[in-house]
């Protein structure tokens, strides 16, 4: 497995380098426990991440490609996603970002749009920092400024499979979400801030459930936004994903009030958990996703990996 992972790394490096020989490259992050994350400045994306299973083996836990052409066809996978303006334009996932700084455990990337790019009146200055901590957590930190008023949504395109086998179904993995409501989506699949109760529906994950338990009751799997119960508290987990076979648990913490869950269909081998700046804060005030000159948008997401799942996720 280690040899395969090393080979994939080498292939990805050679392929991504061909995007732009002067700029595009990969950065490998390693923590003191041996976990590895590989970040590309092509779309400021996470292309690889390993985590320990119950007996200490490191295995991949995110989906990715070996060929550059696949990323061109599926540019959002693993990428930093910034949807700009009323048209929700997203193009930065196919751009080469500047690497501002990097060390063994952290890398910061930046992209500054040109005047008029993405139909903006001004410029957008976006920075994302990936940190692989010694607590076995992948931290993602976003900071964005603008020179002209705009609306935006910022999230990630990381697709997880905790089994260690990216072709294995995720339907037996357990999911818990800190929510009692979904946030209805519009025709463009963005939250409308119209809340709907999850109780007695296939979207009730207030108790841990296998993802596949009620997925057939959905139209084509889960693609739903959930209003979190503790939207202003990063000390409270937003969701927990658990794979009993590998023993891996992943706890998600977010500064955002909404979590979009996407199983990519009803027969899936991957799941994305995407925090969104939408919905309502702890005072039930509607969240404003507009950004003005002089303001700084700051968002943070933490994916914490353990092999000792929280009590709520332990199965008999």
UniProtKB/TrEMBL annotation:
Top-rank taxon: Bacteria
Single Gene Ontology BP annotation: glucose metabolic process
InterPro entries: Aldose_1/G6P_1-epimerase, Gal_mutarotase_sf_dom, GH-type_carb-bd
Cofactors: Ca(2+)
Keywords: Calcium, Isomerase, Signal
Enzyme kind, highest EC tier: isomerase
Signal peptide feature range: 1-21
Pfam families: Aldose_epim
The protein's Enzyme Commission number: 5.1.3.3
GO molecular function, one term: carbohydrate binding
PANTHER family: ALDOSE-1-EPIMERASE, GALACTOSE MUTAROTASE
Subunit record text: Monomer.
Designated name of the protein: Aldose 1-epimerase
Source organism phylogeny: Bacteria, Pseudomonadati, Bacteroidota, Bacteroidia, Bacteroidales
């Amino acid at each position: 497995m280690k040899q395969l992972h090393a080979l994939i790394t080498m292939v990805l490096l050679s392929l991504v380098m061909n995007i732009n020989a002067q700029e595009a490259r990969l950065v490998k992050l390693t923590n003191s426990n041996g976990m590895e994350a590989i970040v590309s400045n092509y779309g400021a994306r996470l292309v690889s991440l390993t985590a320990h299973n119950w007996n200490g083996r490191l295995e991949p836990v995110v989906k990715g490609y070996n060929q550059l052409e696949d990323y061109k066809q599926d540019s959002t996978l693993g990428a930093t996603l910034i949807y700009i303006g009323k048209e929700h334009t997203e193009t930065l996932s196919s751009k080469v970002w500047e690497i501002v700084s990097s060390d063994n455990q952290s890398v910061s990337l930046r992209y500054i749009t040109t005047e008029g790019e993405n139909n903006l009146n001004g410029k957008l200055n976006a920075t994302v920092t990936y940190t692989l901590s010694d607590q076995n957590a992948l931290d993602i930190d976003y900071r964005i400024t603008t020179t002209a008023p705009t609306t935006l949504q910022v999230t990630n395109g990381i697709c997880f499979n905790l089994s260690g086998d990216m072709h294995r179904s995720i339907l037996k993995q357990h999911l818990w979400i800190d929510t009692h409501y979904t946030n209805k989506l519009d025709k463009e699949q963005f939250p409308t801030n119209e809340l709907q109760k999850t109780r007695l529906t296939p979207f009730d994950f207030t108790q841990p459930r296998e993802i596949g338990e009620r997925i057939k009751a959905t139209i084509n799997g889960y693609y739903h936004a959930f209003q979190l119960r503790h939207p202003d508290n990063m000390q409270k987990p937003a969701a927990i994903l658990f794979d009993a076979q590998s023993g891996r648990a992943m706890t998600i913490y977010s500064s955002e009030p909404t979590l979009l869950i996407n199983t990519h269909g009803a027969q899936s081998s991957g799941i994305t958990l995407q925090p969104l700046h939408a919905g309502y804060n702890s005072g039930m005030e509607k969240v404003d996703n507009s950004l003005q000159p002089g303001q700084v948008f700051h968002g943070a997401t933490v994916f914490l990996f353990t092999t000792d799942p929280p009590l709520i996720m332990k199965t008999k």
